[in-house]
Amino acid sequence: MNFPVLAITLDLDDTLWPFAPIGARIDQVLHDWMLEHSPATASMYPVQAMRELRERSFRDNPQLHYDLSALRRLTLAEALEKSGASMELLDPAYEAFYAARNQVEFYPDALAALRRIAARVPVAAVSNGNADLQRIGIGDLFAFQLGSREHGAAKPDPSIFHAACERLGVEHAQVLHVGDHAEMDVAGAMRAGLRGCWINREEHTWTHSELQPDLQFDTLTGLADWLDAGASNPQR
Predict the structure, then answer these.
(1) Res 235 pLDDT > 70
(2) Band of residue 236 on the pLDDT scale cut at 50, 70, 90
(3) Could you please report the per-residue DSSP string of the chain?
(4) Cis ω on the peptide bond leading into residue 156 (within 30° of 0)?
């Protein structure tokens, strides 16, 4: 399929790197940190209990689903308070979490493909997560980073896609959103008027009968190859 792509918006977690290993590392790093700085908290909230507390905080605070950092701080604050720890530990505990959160391991294809893509068109990160591209070391490959926390609403809300297109200065129909999640990324972007590219690494089945992705690849390399082949240039 040929159509013009003048800019790309790109999801991060589970598109450039898998999140599951990061989540497991975070759980262990936080537990080790609590063992050193607040043993009472570590005792009351071992890894599984802290995970359950975080999941409950998420369920109980739907108004904060766009702000995963606020939800994490809420979880840490409750754990510290209920275990009788000093609330002065909240900021350093959050920093221990955030350092671990930004230790990512890219999919084998992702970084090289991202560099190829960014050399062709402007790329903006549009994510519901709280990764920091500067800490990760790839900020120079992006025009900007738009997170749901900063925007005030999470994908698939159309407003975050509209805001990205406005900042890019590109018409919606000439922006391709790329991501792993069928609903939050691809269907959400397409309903907002963007083109949608599904990075389907796990061979999931597409279930949105009312629309189909404009593009689908099992790696980000597939998209880089498509761009290099000139398929985004309707005059070629």
Answers:
(1) no
(2) very low
(3) -----SEEEE--BTTTB-SHHHHHHHHHHHHHHHHHH-HHHHHHS-HHHHHHHHHHHHHH-GGGTT-HHHHHHHHHHHHHHHTT--GGGHHHHHHHHHHHHT-----TTHHHHHHHHHTTS-EEEEESS---HHHHT-GGG-SEEEEHHHHTS-TT-HHHHHHHHHHHT--GGGEEEEES-IIIIIIHHHHTT-EEEEE-TT-PPP--TT---SEEESSHHHHHHHHHTTTT-TT-
(4) yes
- Rounded to 10 degrees, what is the CA torsion of 153, 156, 159, 165? 120
What's the whole-model pTM score? 0.93
The HSE-up count of residue 118 (CA atoms within 13 Å, CB side) is 17
> Both ends of the chain: CA-CA distance in Å?
12
Q: Which fold has domain 7-17+107-228?
A: Rossmann fold (3.40.50)
Domain ranges of the chain: 7-17+107-228, 20-101
Instruction: Give residues with Cβ within 8 angstroms of 100, minimum separation 6.
Output: 22, 25, 26, 29, 30
Q: What percent of the chain has pLDDT over 90?
A: 95
Please give the CATH architecture assigned to the domain spanning 20-101: Up-down Bundle (1.20)
Lowest-confidence segment of 49-53, 148-152, 207-211 by average pLDDT: 207-211
Instruction: Report the alpha-carbon distance of residue 79 to residue 88 in Å, rounded.
Output: 13
Average pLDDT over the chain, rounded to an integer: 96
Q: Are 9 and 189 in contact (CB under 8 A)?
A: yes
Using alpha carbons only, give the angle 146, 152, 154 rounded to the nearest 5 degrees.
70
